[in-house]
Design goal:
By secondary structure, the chain is an alpha/beta fold. It folds into 3 domains: about 240 residues, Glutamine Phosphoribosylpyrophosphate, subunit 1, domain 1 (4-Layer Sandwich), CATH 3.60.20.10; about 190 residues, 3-Layer(aba) Sandwich (Rossmann fold); about 150 residues, Rossmann fold (3-Layer(aba) Sandwich). A hairpin with a 4-residue loop joins strand 13 and strand 14. The protein is globular, with a radius of gyration of 25 Å. It starts with a strand and ends in an 18-residue tail after the last helix. The mean pLDDT is about 95. The structure holds fructose -6-phosphate. Fructose -6-phosphate binds next to helix 9 and helix 16. The site of fructose -6-phosphate has 15 residues, from helix 9 and helix 16.
């Protein structure tokens, strides 16, 4: 949600900011803007994408060695030129960009209006900068102090950058529940919502913690204080990502690149963790907490969206293999329903971005109630990675396409490793089955390489169904969450209504939807429930539905009844989700493309949901 970029140093700020905004555009893309200091405070902003901002600023004065830029995902106020960031203070000397939501903005705004302030936009952000400006004027304090004091009145989530006409060599940054990274160059500083705009300039970064204020002053460098006015020592970390990971690498879209990267990303998730030679699994990040998992009364998995679907597969894995009871919760529901959490529960939070507001809140609640909380995150240094007791990174590499693909299969890899490790330790599967499954898991990247070959066939199927108004996805057991994920992918990027169902549930309602127009994707790979799924296909065909079957064996029975059969390489049931999901990713990708939809930046969505 909203991308923010800042630069302060000796180079021209505008090109750095624009490039950074383009890298962050996956976070939001309904309007964009910059503020530059060059003897004046120049603000340029408009509705639309970063490219629209570039067109709009063609003839403007863009000089300046200090500047801030923003790409917006609207919360308060429709996406238009006025609501675009940056916003300025009452006097007009301060400019702010903001990612997040100010929950008490209406009250603050009312108070400010009573004190004579006037507002141009409908945003909560403008209220924040007016408050900072008022404190600075009235109390005659430094900018960073005014920001700190304003933070004490503001309720909500935010990452902000503030510059001032009166301090042309200073930038102030602050965060609470929204991410902010400071990149440290040679006498210059790069600030951004995540490290992607920074990596091409420096590998040295400082991740701000919640309720911290960073002041960057070209004379004195970077200093950090807490909201309680305590001085903090900046902790400089080295970035692991490289620039190549952020480029399309010859693919037409990031999503296509990321689908194709999965054999590699799954291998990276397993590297050093699955040790076939000594038949061991070693997850270094959670090693010290493994006993908690082995002895857990219950595992609670909290997540949102695709990560929640990964959690559902986790439920099957932990219950089937390690015999530990699992509950999978939408983080947004969990946090508000006074859940029962016991000391012996282990909570696993799953999140690609590591910044999802609801998942963060669920973690805080679980920690308050004394549970051990482990994280499965993709983004290194993200908020969730930092507030959990321990965790395992998925190592999928940056995922830029808004629809999650490789992060999902990497999450499944980690969950598979965790469940298999627990199964061995708890002796809930035989040594023989353990060794078999270990080998099968090791084989997944190879199976993914093979399944990539289905793209051409899936593209043909996409051409047939691109104008369908509804889709149904059916799966059983391990494939049920894949059905949900397949439906979500299609909805997200092609705007076709789609639903995922456990195959047997179909006859309890959705069967009423089936007619000769309705495509039904059936995941028919399950070894133990194979006959049952064949019966489900028969039920669909009896109602003239069009069946697209994903199956792992050359099968006359299914070939005879299904309209289309996509064959995938066979793999043990617990790991099929990683493979069956690939044709569904291709299906949604090609349908979206044929419908002229923006695959990487679907409407209304944002990659990192840092608001409730
Ligand atoms: C779907 C998708 C979203 C995210 C969800 C959670 O393709 O990307 O549903 O899965 O917003 O995000 P993370 O995993 O970052 O917590």
């Amino acid at each position: 949600m909203c991308g923010i970029v800042g630069y302060i140093g000796k180079k021209e700020a505008f090109p750095i900011i624009i490039k950074g905004l383009q890298r962050l555009e996956y976070r939001g893309y309904d309007s964009a803007g910059v503020a530059l200091l060059n003897g004046e405070l120049q603000i340029h902003k408009c509705k639309g994408k970063v490219q629209d901002l570039l067109n709009y600023t063609k003839d403007k004065n863009l000089h300046g060695y200090i500047g801030i830029g923003h790409t917006r995902w609207a919360t308060h106020g429709e996406p238009n030129d006025v609501n675009a960031h940056p916003h300025v203070s009452e006097v007009g000397n301060l400019a702010i960009i903001h990612n997040g939501i100010i929950e008490n903005y209406a009250t603050l705004k009312e108070e400010l209006i009573q004190r004579g302030h006037t507002f141009e936009s409908d945003t909560d952000t403008e209220v924040f900068v007016h408050l900072i400006g008022e404190i600075k004027e009235k109390q005659n304090v430094p900018l960073e102090e005014a920001v700190r004091m304003a933070m004490q009145h503001v309720v909500g989530a935010y990452a902000i950058l503030v510059i001032s006409y009166d301090h042309p060599r200073k930038m102030v940054a602050a965060r609470k529940s929204s991410p902010l990274v400071v990149g440290i160059g040679d006498g210059e500083y790069y600030l951004a919502s995540d490290a992607t705009p920074i990596v091409e300039y420096t590998r040295n970064v400082v991740y701000l913690n919640d309720e911290e204020i960073a002041c960057i002053d070209l004379e004195n460098g970077l200093s950090i204080k807490s909201i309680e006015n305590e001085v903090r020592t900046p902790f400089v970390e080295e970035l692991e990502m490289n620039l190549e990971m952020l480029e399309k690498g010859g693919y037409e879209h990031f999503m296509l690149k990321e689908i194709n990267e999965q054999a590699r990303s799954i291998k990276d998730s397993m590297r050093g963790r699955l040790r076939l030679e000594d038949k061991e699994i070693m997850l270094g990040g959670i090693k010290d907490y493994e006993d908690k998992i082995f002895n857990a009364d219950r595992i609670l998995i909290v997540a949102c969206g695709t990560s929640w679907h990964a959690g559902l597969v986790g439920e099957y894995l932990f219950e089937d293999l390690a015999r530990i009871p699992v509950e999978v919760e939408y983080a947004s529901e969990f946090r508000y329903r006074n859940p029962i959490i016991n000391k012996n529960d282990v909570v696993i939070a799953i999140s690609q971005s590591g910044e999802t507001a609801d998942t963060l809140a669920a973690i805080r609640l679980a920690k308050e109630k004394g549970a051990t909380v482990l994280g499965i995150c993709n983004v290194v240094g993200s908020s969730i990675a930092r507030i959990t007791d321990a965790g395992a990174y998925t190592h999928a590499g940056p995922e830029i396409g808004v629809a999650s693909t490789k992060a999902f299969t990497a999450q499944l890899t980690i969950l598979s490793l965790m469940a298999l490790r627990a199964a061995k330790q708890r002796q809930t599967i035989s040594e023989e089955r353990y060794e078999f499954l270990l080998k099968e898991l090791d084989r997944v990247p190879e199976a993914i390489e093979q399944v990539m070959k289905c793209e051409a066939q899936v593209k043909e199927i996409a051409a047939v169904f691109k104008d369908a108004r509804n889709f149904l996805y059916l799966g059983r057991g391990y494939n049920f969450p894949v059905a949900l994920e397949g439906a979500l992918k299609l909805k997200e990027i092609s705007y076709i209504h789609a639903e995922g169902y456990p195959a047997a549930e179909m006859k309890h309602g959705p069967i009423a939807l089936i007619d000769e127009e309705m495509p039904i994707v059936v995941l028919a790979t399950n070894q133990h429930a194979y006959e049952k799924i064949v019966s489900n296909i028969q039920e669909v065909k009896a109602r003239k539905g069009k069946v697209i079957a994903v199956t792992s064996k050359q099968d006359e029975e299914i070939s005879k009844i299904a309209d289309y059969v996509i064959e995938i390489p066979p793999i043990a049931d617990p790991f099929t989700p990683m493979v069956t999901t690939v044709p569904l990713q291709f299906l949604s990708y090609h349908i979206a493309l044929m419908r002229d939809c923006n695959v990487d930046q679907p409407r209304n969505l944002a990659k990192s949901v840092t608001v409730e």
